[in-house]
Amino acid sequence: MSQGDLRAGPFTHEKSSIARTMSLVMLALLPATAFGLYQFGWPALFLWLATIGAAVATEAACLRIAGKPVRPFVLDGSALLTAWLLAMTLPPWAPWWIGAVGGVVAILIGKQVFGGLGQNLFNPAMVARVVLLISFPLEMTTWVSPKPLFSAEAPDFLSALAITFGGGFNIDSMSSASILGHVKTELGRSVDLAGALAGSYDPMGLLVGTVPGSMGETSALLLLCGGLFLLAMRIISWHIPLAMLGSLALCASVFNLIDPAHYPNALYHVLSGGALLGAFFIATDPVTSPVTVRGQLLFGALLGLLVYVIRTWAAFPEGVAFAVMLANGLTPLIDHYLRPRIYGRTRKGQPISYAETQEGGNG
Amino acid sequence: MRASALKLFRIRGGVHPEGRKQDTCDQPIRELPLPPLLRIPLQQHIGAPAQPEVRRGDHVLKGQLLATSQGLISAPVHAPTSGVIKSIGKFPAPHASGLPIRTITLEPDGEDRWIDLDPQATPLYLEPDDIAKRVAAAGIVGMGGATFPSAVKLGLRERFALHTLVINAAECEPYLTCDDRLMRERAHEIIDGIRITLHGLQVNKALVAIENNKPEAIAAMAEAAHAFDEISIVAVPVRYPMGSEKHLVQTLTGKETPARALTADIGIVVHNVATVRAIGEAVRFGRPLISRVVTVGGGAVREPGNLLVPIGTPVEVLIEACGGLCEEPAKLLSGGPMMGQPLPEQRVPIVKGTSGILALTTAEVASKPTMPCIRCASCVDVCPCGLLPLEMANRARNADLQGAADFGLMDCVSCGSCSYVCPAHIPLVQYFNYAKGALMEQQRAKHKQEETKRLAAARAERMERIAAAKREAMAKRKAEMAAKKAREAEAAQAAEADDAAAEPTDAPNSKLAEPQVGT
């Protein structure tokens, strides 16, 4: 019997731990990741490993420098998950150093300089993605069409090594635009939407994931499955994903109704780019999202709006990373103003009063 | 019994800890043989400790008064059996601190002979105040763990317009089944206690709230309450902390108790089910509260069960009676695992508020090292009080007591739901208890300082007043002296004048002296 420990109870605990939470999120990511790795082959796997390796090594080094225990924090899986999420958003055939730089930036600048686990204001994976996108626009927007593993067109192990660690690949012959990028470019050239979408917009392909895009963002269906799994396991709640996708779909529908020639519909926005990955896996990052239900609904709605605004009118075809960071910045403000009502008090914090005469007094 | 189609209301948050009641809920209550020594603390209740009425070496009878209650909020203590007072001294308290408190040690003589009791065959014809008096004299306190003197609650009818008595039989803490067993085996005694309590409160409606994981208890109680329209048995959903009185009242009525107020403010008094049974025993049979049912459980106990135990029995005797320990427990607790207290050692006694003794294994405690908060908001979701535990803990940890209070610290009921779900295993309740204690300490210090200031100012003012009064008195005396002198002079002059009447030549002198009178 531990006589020394007189800490207050409870002396029983739900089966929960940070490592368990992180593991379940990774489990939820697994189908989409596995499919992405299969679609884009060895180079994608190498990039994924490079990103994770760099992030975990940076985490360990930072913990050592900060004098914190290395083992429990590395084993909690948070750095691994951050890197994993980042890798999901990278062009699958990007050179290894894109992943490595991203991994270092995510952990070092995105997380550890704020004080480590739980302290960061912005989602570390999105910090890294934004840094990479601004610093290396070419590498970060060079997409390939899926070349499933072991298929005829897929690079073998050795040529994959060359793609990731060597001189890259022949951009002219292999590259292919993502649907968001393609539409943006075409609309920019004053081609109308129908023309831009013709031959490139394939909702079924977006759903299954047989389209060019980031490593883990292409299969809407598998991401949705992962998200539903997290909901079922109560790792995330429905508020942020639903509010975000709902607000994105609403914005898209409104503008699509106003001018269908220039504004794609809701389905296009929800299925393409990082919308689903963002809604279920990134916006729901507990550290950087509000803690109350009302705050989460506001946060999600705001996020959906920002994604739409950035995708539609800003210089970048994809808006999730920027939108997430902007919304993250508002989280402290949202948490400050939107608090739950305390039992026995009004929303303003005054004790409830039953001014109307009570039904009592029959004693 | 009224058909219990009562509409129930949902409470916010809450958790569903594993019940773990199956080891003890089917074990009938066993009466524990008298232990060789009883240790009876003089403070087994909230309020002032009782004052001993016996001396070392005295022979006492079962039910005899050992110590009287002191002040408004206090409770007397009675002898659980007949025997000899071995000592009145200090003994470790059944509290996490294990600090020594005043305790009477009684050596049973084995005869278990009752003192002459004062039964009351028709308790429902007593004056309500008499019921409160009898309950006070029987030393009855809240047996659910809060140990608030029950007589004080019976007196609430004087200050509030009461309309409902709620019997808390939720027993939402895991492991504990003592109330469940009591309801299955002693339903009629409980119903009798409820009727007496209703009379004592002058209220004509009682709701007995039982979590619906106790179907046998619900059936037994419904059967026993059958003849009484004023008593309804209500099955409430299983959710911790259903047994928190304010949340139970909300479940039953949909009404929240205003912050910093009592349930009596909304017309409701809540008593624990074992407490009303004790009230019945005390009023009808004159028996003071000298024993209670205790659940002995946990994975480290060989044969868990429910025991009827004299107050003052050492914990080790209970564990021994349940087959002893099969492994070294990771935690020894008094009460349930959610809100119970860790016990410092096995020698400490059972008191009126001890509902359970749990010896938990490491696996049951499921303690893990604390990690940083990841703001997952699990604590916010489960908080039944609508608080932000993570923000409160963050401030308490940095000794920002006011900050924690601004986030509603004093509205926290310490139910532990937040700590129970926290994936980072942060000891949130520990932080809150610390901050509440420190805040109260601060308020006491502030109050003391203000009182000191007020008293000092009052003293200065009083001194000033005394000085002023002295000055005034002095001036008055001076004036009186002067007046006296003047009068004397006048008298002298008058005398002289009388003389002058004989000798008129002195008259102008007296005129000159006249103005001096006013000075």
Topology:
The complex is a heterodimer of chains A (363) and B (519).
Chain A: H1 18-66, H2 70-75, H3 78-88, H4 96-108, H5 124-135, H6 137-140, H7 157-165, H8 171-174, H9 179-188, H10 193-197, H11 203-208, H12 220-232, H13 239-258, H14 266-271, H15 275-282, H16 293-313, H17 320-337
Chain B: E1 30-31, E2 38-41, E3 51-52, E4 59-60, E5 65-68, E6 77-78, E7 83-92, E8 100-108, H1 128-137, H2 150-154, E9 164-169, H3 178-185, H4 187-201, E10 206-211, H5 215-224, E11 231-236, H6 245-253, E12 268-272, H7 273-285, E13 291-297, E14 305-310, H8 315-321, E15 331-334, E16 341-342, E17 356-360, H9 362-365, H10 378-382, H11 389-397, H12 401-406, H13 417-421, H14 428-502, H15 507-513
Parallel strand pairs in B: 1-14, 9-10, 9-12, 10-11, 13-17
Antiparallel strand pairs in B: 2-8, 3-5, 4-7, 5-6, 7-8, 13-14, 15-16, 15-17
Assigned CATH superfamily of one domain in chain B: NADH-ubiquinone oxidoreductase 51kDa subunit
| SSE topology string of chain A | HHHHHHHHHHHHHHHHH
Number of strand segments of chain A: 0
Structural class of chain A: mainly alpha
Let me know the number of strands of chain B.
17
CATH class of one domain in chain B: Alpha Beta
CATH class of chain A: Mainly Alpha
Which residue ranges of chain A are poorly predicted, with pLDDT under 50 across at least 5 consecutive positions?
A: 357-363
* Count of helical regions of chain A: 17
Q: Tell me about the largest β-sheet of chain B.
A: 6 strands, mixed
Mean pLDDT of chain A: 88
Q: Give, in spatial order, the strands making up the sheet with the most strands of chain B.
A: 1-14-13-17-15-16
Query: End-to-end span of chain B in angstroms?
Result: 93 Å
